Amino acid sequence: MSVSIIAAAALLISAFITDIRRMIIPNKLTAFFFAAGLIYHLVASGWGGGGSALLGAAAGAIPLLLLYAAKGIGAGDVKLFGALGAWVGPSAALYVLMYSILYAGAIGLVMLFISRPFTRRVFTGAVSLFVPGMGLSQAGWLSWAKEGKKFPFMLAVVPGALSAWWTML
Question: Could you list the residue ranges that cross the membrane (predicted)?
Answer without folding.
Answer: 54-73, 126-145, 151-168
